[in-house]
Design brief:
elongated
Length: about 140
């Protein structure tokens, strides 16, 4: 990300944080994503032949499996949340635009579909993290 994108993201987060409803939603989404990622990591580490209790003994294999699993869970979870939010906002705007002017259906549909791409990218990143990255 370049500095302009980071500045825009910073402004967006600051403006969203000023509104109590959005602040509560942002905190809840972050907590759910973190809990889901940790739960996924513990489940995959357990399925890989280790237990959740032994995940604290810090053997390299256990910690790498746990880290990869948490990363994959975060990628899917956060991308899914972002994609859902994007589709919700774009879909509401698209319905409003189509109601006023029927000819903009194709353009509106395109913007709604682009929001779904975010979730697909998150799934691809999770697959790469889980299957391609080496485990020590």
């Amino acid at each position: 990300m370049n500095s302009a994108e980071l500045r825009a993201l910073s402004i967006l987060l600051r403006e969203a944080w000023k509104r109590p409803k959005y602040r509560a939603i942002m905190i809840a989404v972050a907590l759910v994503a973190i809990l889901a990622a940790v739960g996924t990591g513990v489940a995959v580490a357990h399925a890989a032949g280790t237990s959740a209790a032994s995940a604290t003994d810090q053997t390299p294999y256990t910690m790498s499996v746990l880290g990869k699993s948490i990363g994959a869970g975060l990628a899917v979870g956060l991308a899914g949340i972002g994609g859902g939010y994007a589709v919700g906002v774009a879909g509401a705007a698209a319905v409003s635009a189509i109601t006023e002017k029927r000819e903009v259906f194709g353009t509106a549909f395109l913007f709604v579909v682009l929001g779904e791409g975010i979730a697909i990218y998150g799934l691809l990143v999770a697959i790469i993290v889980a299957l391609v990255l080496p485990t020590t």
